[in-house]
Design brief:
Blueprint lengths: L2 H5 L7 E5 L2 E5 L5 H7 L6 E2 L6 E2 L12 E4 L2 E5 L10 E3 L1 E2 L15 H7 L1
Length: 116
């Protein structure tokens, strides 16, 4: 039997988000991780040191393996963040702060280092 039928769930209509610029279908109530898994994406972050791929590990927000950038905001745990129509999700490289400027809430240190 279908799990949606067992639970009596009736999700609302699907909507679109983007992941690294490509459209991905999502359902109301899904987390970023659930949407990405449904789309066949299992890795969306790389480690700082060696660039190893990471995705969901614990699935409950305890670890930090599933970090993504959501609407320009880095370090969001994909297993906890619910998607909303039009969200822009991005793969996170390292700490994620390289993609933020002073306007985005970063410290500005990254830009200062690059200027030297």
């Amino acid at each position: 039997m279908n799990p949606l039928e067992l639970a009596g769930a009736r999700p609302g209509p699907a909507f679109t988000i983007t992941f690294d610029g490509r459209p991905v279908e999502a359902l109301p109530g899904q987390t970023v991780a659930a949407v990405l898994w449904s789309a066949g994406v299992t890795s969306w972050r790389s480690t700082r040191g060696e660039g190893r791929p990471r995705g969901v590990f614990c699935g409950i927000g305890v670890c930090f393996d599933c970090l993504v950038t959501v609407n320009g905001r880095p370090n969001q745990r994909a297993c906890l963040v619910p998607v909303r129509p039009g969200d822009e999700i991005g793969t996170q490289e390292g700490t994620g702060h390289g993609e933020m400027g002073p306007q985005g809430g970063g410290t500005g240190r990254e830009e200062a280092r690059r200027a030297d």
